[in-house]
UniProtKB/TrEMBL annotation, chains A, B, C, D:
Molecular function via GO: DNA binding
Protein's UniProt name: TetR/AcrR family transcriptional regulator
Keyword annotations from UniProtKB, A to Z: DNA-binding
PANTHER family: HTH-TYPE TRANSCRIPTIONAL REPRESSOR SCO4008, TRANSCRIPTIONAL REPRESSOR
DNA-binding region: 27-46
Transmembrane segments: none
Entry-linked InterPro entries: Homeodomain-like_sf, HTH-type_TetR-like_transc_reg, HTH_TetR, Tet_transcr_reg_TetR-rel_C_sf, Tscrpt_reg_YsiA_C
Ranges of residues in domain HTH tetR-type: 4-64
Organism listed in the record: Candidatus Desulfatifera sulfidica
Pfam family, one: TetR_C_4
DNA sequence: AATGAATGAGCATTCATTCAT
DNA sequence: TATGAATGAATGCTCATTCAT
C-alpha cells in the first residue's frame, strides 16, 4: 500500500474532512490540503464533490463489509453471529469516529441528494443482518413470523442510533460491552422461537 | 391562531422547504416565497438560517410530544404504551413526510453543526420511551437488567430507520400495522421479564 | 435618464470593459467595478456573462439604428442616403471606439458562441442598406442586376474593415471624409445604372 | 514532408480546434488529442497558447498568399486579377471552413490581444489587392483618385463579410459564382476610369 | 524528444444578510 | 412592521503550464 496512492489518500482525507465539517461545509481545498495534494489533482480522480462522497461510502463501507464477513465466516450459530455483527459495528464506529459520522449524517444526505446513487455497499452491509436472521429461522432458533426485511432495519437502526449518541457526547454512561449486551439481548430474546419446555 | 401569524407561517414554510431540498440547498428566498413573505421579513422573526432550523425542530417535535403525551395519558399498561408510541411515531412520519425528512436528516446535521443547540424537545420526546420502560420495570413487566437509557435509543433508532426507508422508497413491502407489530413485538418479547410458569 | 439606472450603467460599463479586454478576458468584477456596483448586483439585471454581451449589442446597435434611421428619414435620394449611412457609421465608430471594438470583435464571437442568438438588431441595422439599394433600383438609379442581399454585405463589410483598421492604428493616413468619399464612390459608381446618354 | 512532422501536425490540429471551438474555448488538450500528441509535447514546439494561434495564421495565410500569388502570376489584366483574387479567397473560405472561421474571428482577437504581433502574412495577403489596383491605375484602367490603401480594405472587407455569413448559415441563397460576380462587378465598375467615349 | 500526472491561479455565480424606504 | 434591491464573501471547478521520468 504505497503512500503515493493518491486515490486512497484523497478518500481518507475526505472521510476526515466530511466527518469534521459535514459535506456542505467541507471545501475541496480542505480535502486537498488534508490529502497534501493540489486542488486540481482531486479532479483527476473524482468527477465532482458528490462523487467523492459516494466513493467514501463505497470504499469505507466496503471495508466494513469485508471485515464483518471475514469474522462471520468463522461462526455458524445465528445468535453469536448477530452479536459479532453488533460488536464489530459498534467497535468500528467507536474507533473510527470519522467513518461513524459520515455514515450517520452524510449517508442520509446523499441518499436524498443523489437519487441515482443506489448505496449498493450499504445495502450489502445491512443485508448481512437479514441473512443471519434467515439462517436462524431455518434452524428454528428465531421465530418464523419475524420478517427479516423489517428486523434488519430495526436492528441496524438501534445500533446506528446508539453509535450516533456516542459521537455526540464525550462522556459514556455505559461501557461498549454493556451496551452491546443490552441491545443484542433485546433482539435475541425478542426474536427467539418459543421452546417446547417453556 | 390566525393564519396571519408570520412566525408560524415561516416555520411551516421552512419545514416544507427543508424537507424538500435539505437545509443546505434550501434558500431563504425559497422559504420566504413559500411563506408568502419578503426575504427580509424572515429576519424580523429569526436571527439566521440555523435559527429557523432549530425553531422548526422545537415546534414540530414539540407538537409530537404533545400529541403522544395526550394519547399515553389514557393508558397505563406499559406494553400497550410502547405500542402506542410506536404507532403514533410511525403514522405521523408516514403522514407528514416533510417532518419525517427533517427529523431524519436535518436533525443530525443540526446536532453536529450547532454545538450549543441542546435539542431539548427531542430529548423530551425520546425520554418518553425510557419513562415507559421504567414504569414497566417497576411493575415487574420488563426485565430489571434492561437499561432504559440504552433501550430507549435502540427503540427509537429502530423506529427511525424504518421510517427513513419509507421516505426513500415509494413501494411499501409491508403495511404500517404489520411493521409496527413486528418491531414492537421484538422489543416487547426482548424486554419481557421471565414469568414463573415459564 | 437617472444615474441610478443600474441596467444602463452596467451596459455602459460592460461595453467599455469588453472593448478594452475582450469578452473572455473581461471579468464580471471588472464590469461591476466600472459600473460602481457589487458583483452580485449584475445578476439582478442579467442572467449571465453572455447575456450581458448580447444586451450590449441589442442596446448599442439599437441606438445606432435609431440614430441612422432618424437622419435617413430626412433624405430621399438613395445615393445621398448611402453616403449618410456610411458617414454615420464611420463617424460613430470613430467617436465610440469601445462600441467599434465590441461590434468588430465580440459580435463575431457571440454569433458563433451563442447559436440561439439571432442578432436581430444587427440584422435590422444592416438591412437599412439593402432597403436603400432597393429604393435606388426602383428609381432606376442602381442597376437592376444588383442583388441587395449581397451588396449590403459588401457595403457593410467594407465599412467594417475600414473602421477595424482605425481602432488598431493610432495614425490615420487618410481623413474620415476622404475615406468615406472613397468607399462610397466605389459603391455608387459600382452600382450605378447605365444612363442612356452614356 | 513526413506526417511525423509534429510542428505541422499541431498547427493543423490547432486550426481545426480553434475553428470549431474558438480560441478561448479551445483547450490545449483538445489540440494535443487532435494532433495525437501529449499535452506537454506542444510546449516543445510552441511557447504558449497564443503562440500557436499566431503560428496558425502565419502558416495558413502564408499558404493562401502562395496559392493566390501563383495563380496571379499567370495573369496581367488587373480586372481579371481582381476577379481571380476574389474567386480564390471565397472558394478557399468555402472549402476550408476552419480557416475561414479562424481568419474571421480569431484574427481579430489576436490582433487585439497580442499587441506585438504584426500580422505580417496577413498584410502581405491584403496588399496583393492594392498591388493589383496600382497596376490597374498605371494602365489607366482604374481611376487615378482611387486610394489603393483604402480600396484594398473595402475590397477585402466586402469579401470577408460575405464569407462570414457563409460560415454562419447553412442555406446559401446565392451561388458562389453569382456572389463573386456581384461583388467584383461593383468594385470593377466602381473603380473604373472614365473612358473617352463616355 | 516525449509523456501525462500534477499543479494552483483564476473566475462566474450564488445566496445569506442588511438597510433604506 | 414589511419590503426587496443591493451587497460581497465564498467556492467548485477548469485548464495552461511545468517537470520528473
Amino acid at each position: 500500500m504505497k503512500t503515493t496512492d493518491k486515490h486512497t489518500k484523497i478518500i481518507q482525507a475526505a472521510t476526515k474532512v466530511f466527518a469534521k465539517k459535514g459535506f456542505f461545509n467541507a471545501r475541496i481545498s480542505d480535502i486537498a490540503k488534508e490529502a497534501k495534494v493540489a486542488d486540481g489533482t482531486i479532479y483527476l480522480y473524482f468527477n465532482n464533490k458528490f462523487d467523492i462522497l459516494i466513493s467514501v461510502f463505497e470504499e469505507e463501507i466496503g471495508g466494513l463489509v469485508e471485515q464483518v464477513s471475514k469474522l462471520l465466516a468463522e461462526e455458524t450459530e445465528p445468535r453469536k453471529m448477530l452479536k459479532i455483527y453488533a460488536t464489530m459495528h459498534l467497535s468500528m464506529m467507536k474507533k473510527n469516529k470519522n467513518l461513524a459520522e459520515v455514515i450517520q449524517i452524510e449517508l442520509r444526505q446523499s441518499t436524498k441528494l443523489i437519487k441515482e446513487y443506489r448505496n449498493n455497499k450499504f445495502s450489502e452491509y445491512i443485508n448481512i443482518i437479514s441473512t443471519i436472521i434467515k439462517l436462524g429461522q431455518s434452524q428454528g432458533i428465531f421465530r418464523e413470523d419475524i420478517k427479516p426485511g423489517i428486523a434488519k432495519r430495526a436492528f441496524f437502526g438501534a445500533l446506528d442510533e446508539i453509535s450516533r449518541v456516542w459521537t455526540l457526547s464525550l462522556k459514556n454512561t455505559y461501557t461498549v460491552d454493556e451496551t452491546i449486551t443490552q441491545v443484542v439481548d433485546i433482539f435475541l430474546f425478542g426474536m427467539l422461537a418459543p421452546t417446547k419446555k417453556r
